[in-house]
Amino acid sequence: MARAVTDPQELMRRLDLPCSVVDAEACTDFPLRVPESFIARMEQGNPRDPLLMQVLPHNRETLFMPDYRRDPVGEQASMVVPGVIHKYSGRVLLIAAVSCAVHCRYCFRRHFPYVEANPKRDYWRAALDYIASDSTINEVILSGGDPLLLADSHLSKLIGRLEAIPHLRRMRIHTRLPVVLPSRVDEALLHWLGQGRLQMVMVIHTNHPNELNESVHDALQKIAAAGVALLNQSVLLKGINDQAETLGNLSEKLFSTGVLPYYLHLLDKVQGAAHFEVSEDIALILVEAMHSSLPGYLVPRLVREREGDPAKQLISEPFRRIGGIPADI
Question: What is the DSSP code (8-state) at residue 165?
């Protein structure tokens, strides 16, 4: 993390690209951050590299788009105490960390009020009290920021306190670190992941097969060997993964590391990310093409998240194009 690149011009020099393509204004509200291990997977001299495009600030981020919002899925309205988001029945999301190892330009929390919504300020007391008071909650999702940026000692203490709440059954960790910074997966992390009574699920975030190199493969296999169920969620991004072949290759590479493709998200309409949007019609065509070439368990569910909905909205055609067979059969 200390060696992460935060200067866009330095990133361009590393990749042998002209510094003139960088827009400094786009970094004012949402600065660049990308680990060296992620930069190493980018193609030198290629301004359209799919990993670079996920992190490089662009002047289109500064354009105001009327259908886009700073809080696109209504998280702030669902924050019951600082850092605890209770939108869906049976589960809550806990903002376990307020920073990330990489700043993805399409991030739906790029405007999130992390300072005010930091549950660690009172040593998790309000968050834990709320979770303990509601017996309908059976799953806690650690998110952020990235929860794996916390020290293992802090994480293991937090999880120990959550395990003391009798009605909890599962712990879900949403993280990008095993992908962008696989060295984070060390013996200390694996030790506490494999302990405790709560069933452990880890949802990683990978958008393109080029993100999955040998180091990531090894890190994910170690996590799986610790008894953690591994899932992946992707965001459908224009110019990055909006090709059926790319998405199919991603699913194959994920499954070879023990990760099951889980969600393919339509872009959350956050201000600054409109240039990444792929239409629902194109998304349906891509998913249909994946169904034609992959077994069903390798096709992620195409979803959209909207404020006020009781769950993520599953998007699918009511009938397949051939034979009128219902899409869910």
Answer: S
Q: How many CB atoms lie within 10 A of CB 115?
A: 9
Sign of the torsion formed by the C-alpha atoms of 1, 229, 209 and 27: negative
Superfamily of the domain at 71-314? Aldolase class I (3.20.20.70)
Please state the pTM of the whole predicted model.
0.93
CA quadruple 58, 61, 62, 64: dihedral sign? positive
- Say if CB 31 and CB 103 are below 8 A apart: yes
Whether the Cβ atoms of residue 168 and residue 138 lie closer than 8 Å to each other: yes
Tokens standing for 300? 């992620």
| Domain boundaries of the chain, sorted by first residue | 71-314
pLDDT per residue over 239-284, tens digit each?
Answer: 999 999 999 999 999 999 999 999 999 999 999 999 999 999 999 9
- Residue 175 tokens read as 């993280």
- Give the pLDDT confidence of 100-120 residue by residue, as tens digits: 999 999 999 999 999 888 888
Give the C-alpha distances (Å, rounded to integers) separating 257 from 89, 128, 244, 260.
31, 34, 20, 9
CB 138 within 8 Å of CB 91: yes
The number of helix segments (H) and strand segments (E) in the chain equals 11, 10
